Amino acid sequence: MENIQLEIDSRGIALAVFDMPGRPFNVFSEAMMADLSSLIDTVESSGDKIKGLVITSGKSAFVAGADLAMIQDFGAMRFSANKTEMRQRYSYLGALFRRLERLPVPVVAAVNGLALGGGLEVAMACHARVCVESTAPILGLPEILLGLLPGAGGTQRLPRYIGIKEAIKMLLDGNAISPVKGFELGLVDALTDADSLVDRAKDLAASMVAGAKWDKPDFAVSAEDREFIEALGAEREMLALTAWNQQHADLYPAVGAIMSCVKDGFLLDIDAGSDVEWDIFVDLMSDPIASNMVTSCFLNKTAASKHAKRRAGVEAELPKAVSWLSAVEAPAHLKKRVELVEESAADLVFADQQGSFADKTVVLRNVVKGDLLAGTGAEIHFCGELSEFVELLGPAADKTRAAALSLLATLGISAVLVDGPRGSLQVMTTALAEYIETTALNAEQLSRAASSVELGASLMAMGIDVDSHAGNTGVEDRSHGLNMLAVVGLAALKALEARFADSLSSHVDAIEGADLLAIYALNYPKWTGGPLSFLAMLQRKEIDPALLSDELQSAVANLQWRLKDERGYCALALSN
């Protein structure tokens, strides 16, 4: 096995160490799943040689989850595979975990660090869990944050361990808990120090009885949990336990999917419950929103820094001395990264306009307040306030811009680079502001329209006063909201066309960058995957274009570009 090392001690306790070569974290890729299957085969065929199994990690984290590039590939299957084929592939990891759970020897997870998504799911499929004692939140099922559900048994095992109410909070909010909290809830069986972790897990494997508690004849869910699930309005009560309201939840299919998994599967046996989960997972992955969110909010977001570094075209050292002369508030941890000095002594200057040291100055521009025509030097564009994504403009291979990129990276701020004076962020905000000004919606109508599509935070970032939690909305409100989303998408595409003309199809990173800027700088709703992904959904009629105004329907119908192909929504090509 390439990704799992196995050794057996004198007591017959096997230690399986997950350690993927060349990766900072262990994830469940196709190769890791194949090795896990081989590990299970080895234990099953060992006779009396293996009397217990401990699973741990050779890295600082346990397992970080599923390989999301593989999940992106799952999303692409909806264009070519039938539901039977999709279900067979999607259920493979969950079926592996069930095989692990049904091993005739005790199986213990020795969780040494971060266990998220599939990492927590495999730990829950073990018969017991020993964790390094910590109050850090490292145990979680964050799939909801990417429009997914934990589809390898997570929606079934977690509530059976900790009860419906605590499980729903974790599943729908995506928040992790600490091993100490997990021990209190009954998810973790023992806590220990890092040096004793594996030995403690081995001792437990040598002394405990094999099998999951729900496979034992006397297992029963609590009367309280049964009553909760069987009550009318259970879904409403589930939402009430979380930060979701119904209107917000309706935009994210994963919310309803998770609640259905729990409601329809929890009172069944674990195998029937898993079948429910897998069927619902197929339906969820047949929806474009999951693919959009995985692609934009994880894969493209993760790759953004690499794209920016490549586009910079020049290497630059991290500046040691910085002068911050802007009225914009400096990032809180800037002082921990560099020395703050006077302008004349600085390696890099951040200011609201070019001054005496233009050759080492980066201008900070709030696009809501700034002029559309930018200057000729390096500029950072943001909306409302500095956030985790900004647009960094300037001449190609400019050392000042490259130095700013290096510093931003150390501050946890990702940049979308633009070679030239005009980017996408200001074009998008200007188009949206102009559209709102001409729609003649009153404040209440505007609030409902923005709330219906989760656009309220965007408008507030632009200084437009709306209630982002407006009351119940209807079809007309949604239509107005979708119009606003389309306006931003069309503006983003127009800005890219102006920069790249007929070569747009070879600048995928810039297209991805426009989506990322909209989501993380403008607060454009994540369920869309960004404005260009939203246009793609309109083109495919995954969102009914008839909900748009006649003018916008015509604009979408007459686009020159086929936006994003079947391969996980990550390419752009000329239409025929």
Structure overview:
InterPro entries: ClpP/crotonase-like_dom_sf, Enoyl-CoA_hyd/isom_CS, Enoyl-CoA_hydra/iso, FA_oxidation_alpha_subunit. Pfam families: ECH_1. GO terms for molecular function: enoyl-CoA hydratase activity; long-chain (3S)-3-hydroxyacyl-CoA dehydrogenase (NAD+) activity. Belongs to the enoyl-CoA hydratase/isomerase family. It comes from Zhongshania marina. This protein is of the alpha/beta class and 576 residues long. The strands form four sheets. A seven-stranded mixed beta sheet has the order 10-9-11-12-13-14-15, sandwiched between helices. It has a six-stranded mixed beta sheet with strand order 1-2-3-4-6-8, sandwiched between helices. The two termini are 47 Å apart. The chain folds into three domains: 4-286, 2-enoyl-CoA Hydratase, Chain A, domain 1 (Alpha-Beta Complex), CATH 3.90.226; 294-304 and 424-573, no CATH class; 317-388 and 395-416, no CATH class. Helices cover 46% and strands 12% of the residues. Helix 6 (154-162) crosses helix 7 (164-173). It is globular and about 75 Å long. It is built from 24 helices and 17 strands. The mean pLDDT is 91.
